[in-house]
Design goal:
The complex is a heterodimer.
Chain A: E1 9-12, H1 16-28, E2 34-37, H2 40-49, E3 54-57, H3 66-75, E4 84-88, H4 93-102, E5 106-109, H5 114-126
Parallel strand pairs in A: 1-2, 1-3, 3-4, 4-5
Chain B: H1 7-17, H2 23-37, H3 43-68, H4 71-113, H5 116-133, H6 135-166, H7 196-204
The chains are: A alpha/beta, B mainly alpha.
Chain lengths: 128, 207
């Protein structure tokens, strides 16, 4: 199934340089409609007021973490099926398991490369 | 048997009961009295006495060594200075990374005006630069962990200084570091980290 690259993508990270890197990598694989949020609560406001087809979120943020954002998304009747990719340096088994149990669509460990990002996005959107 | 864990508490109680007494003088008196008793002691009691004396000497030595360390410098100067230096490293590398990204974005724009293989090669190069720039996020998180460790050491050193200033042994416990969210571990060292293929395999095990 062809991926709709015109969809709105929300990227969430408290580190502006990382947002910039992910935005540029997404642009290189033709995702040009990208919005940014700097923590989970900021992201939740944007998700509830906007129309997004994919969330790519960091985990370790304050005041609302990526895991808490994911839990909120999965409990929201309108957002619960939204594809959600976690990109994080948290690479312990317990982290991956917790994210999976919370309903993450896929999990990318930092540092990552553009090919991994492209592959995971395509995989997640193919199952959406 | 002497209840060793309770010994500091008993000593502290005695100190509280006789606050005006000079500890060195008391130690001298105890040593002198015990010295005269040696002939009346059993072998076990004598061995115990020797251990108590060694314990007292160890405590005295530790106090002297800590005093000689000028421990205040650790909390007042050394650790704050080290954390400031680390914060500066994060700030400088972040600024440098932003400049690299800005240059890379310019190259990306130029690349889109080039046709054929040259444009593709330029994009491949900028992709690699973007990937490499994510080092800043990882090193930033690692440095934050080091800063947090230094601050924890600072709290413990401050507690030790406070305890020795109070001349008490077990009046309080060291302050506990703020409880971390149990799942937040930050970046793992390469030898301990799961790589992307390990994570993919773990996720697949749920399917």
């Amino acid at each position: 199934m062809a991926v709709d690259k015109s969809m709105n993508v929300l990227i969430v990270d408290d580190y502006k340089t990382m947002l910039r890197i992910i935005r540029n990598l997404l642009k290189q694989i033709d995702f040009n409609n990208v919005e940014e949020a700097t923590d989970g609560s900021d992201a939740l406001i944007k998700l509830r007021s906007g129309n997004f087809g994919l969330v790519i979120s960091d985990w370790n943020m304050q005041p609302m973490t990526g895991l808490e954002l994911l839990q909120e998304v999965r409990q929201d009747s309108r957002l619960k099926s939204l594809p959600f990719i976690m990109i994080t340096a948290e690479s312990k088994t317990e982290n991956v398991v917790a994210a999976k149990q919370a309903g993450v669509s896929n999990y990318i460990v930092k540092p990552f490369n553009a090919e991994t990002l492209r592959e995971k996005i395509e995989k997640v959107l193919a199952h959406a | 048997m002497l209840d060793v864990p309770q010994l500091p508490q008993r000593l502290a109680q005695l100190r509280a009961r006789y606050p005006a007494s000079d500890p060195d003088m008391v130690a001298d008196v105890v040593r002198a009295v015990l010295g005269t008793m040696r002939g009346d002691l059993t072998a076990n009691e004598a061995a115990l006495l020797t251990e108590v004396e060694e314990l007292a000497q160890t405590v005295a030595n530790a106090r002297a060594e800590i005093a000689a360390l000028r421990a205040d410098d650790i909390t007042d100067s050394h650790i704050p200075s080290a954390t400031d230096e680390l914060d500066a490293i994060v700030a400088h590398t972040a600024a440098a990374t932003d400049i690299i990204l800005e240059c890379c974005e310019t190259m990306d724009r130029l690349g889109s005006t080039l046709a054929g293989e040259a444009g593709q090669q330029l994009q491949d190069v900028t992709t690699k630069i973007y990937e490499a720039c994510s080092f800043q996020d990882i090193t930033g998180q690692r440095i934050t962990k080091v800063v947090s460790t230094l601050q924890s050491i600072e709290r413990k050193v401050a507690h030790i200084i406070e305890v020795f200033r109070r001349d008490a042994f077990v009046d309080g416990k060291p302050p506990q570091a703020a409880e971390e969210a149990s799942l937040l571990n930050g970046p793992q060292l390469p030898a301990n980290a799961m790589d992307q293929s390990d994570i993919d395999a773990l996720l697949a095990s749920f399917d």
